[in-house]
From TrEMBL:
Residues 1-21 are annotated as: Disordered. The lineage of its organism: Bacteria, Bacillati, Actinomycetota, Actinomycetes, Micrococcales. This is DUF3017 domain-containing protein. The keyword Hydrolase does not apply. It holds the Pfam family DUF3017. It comes from the Bacteria. The chain crosses the membrane at residues 29-48, 54-72, 84-106. InterPro entries: DUF3017. Keywords: Membrane, Transmembrane, Transmembrane helix. Coiled coil: none annotated.
C-alpha cells in the first residue's frame, strides 16, 4: 500500500480536515451553444473560401459571447464564464475586434 495522500485515509475515505468543493451553480454549456454555432458557421465559410463572411461570423460570435457574458446571470452563462466577468468580457471583445480587424485588412485580390 502507498502512503495516504492529502486528506485520504488508508481505507480510501477522505479525512475530516479535507475541504469539500462547493457544488457548481452553472449548467456546463448553457449559452455556449450559441457561440459554438457561430464558430461552426464561420469555419464553414472558411472552408468554402468566403473569408469576409467568415471574418464577420467569427468576430461576431466572439462579440456575441461578450454581450452574453454581460447580460446573462452567472447560473445561465455556462461555458462562457472562465474567469471573472470583467476579464472574460475584455478578452472576448479584444479577440473579436482582433479577428474583425485582421480579416478586413486581408488583401483578397487575385494576383
Amino acid at each position: 500500500m502507498s502512503d495516504p495522500g492529502a486528506g485520504e485515509r488508508e481505507d480510501g475515505g477522505v479525512g475530516a480536515h479535507a475541504q469539500r468543493r462547493p457544488a457548481l451553480d452553472t449548467r456546463p454549456l448553457a449559452a455556449w451553444w450559441v457561440i459554438f454555432a457561430g464558430l461552426v458557421v464561420g469555419l464553414l465559410f472558411v472552408l468554402t473560401d468566403h473569408m469576409l463572411r467568415a471574418t464577420v461570423s467569427l468576430g461576431g460570435a466572439l462579440l456575441l459571447a461578450a454581450v452574453l457574458r454581460v447580460a446573462l446571470p452567472g447560473s445561465r452563462v455556462g461555458g462562457i464564464a472562465v474567469r471573472g466577468p470583467v476579464v472574460d468580457v475584455v478578452l472576448l471583445v479584444l479577440l473579436g475586434v482582433a479577428v474583425l480587424v485582421s480579416g478586413f485588412t486581408l488583401d483578397l485580390a487575385a494576383r
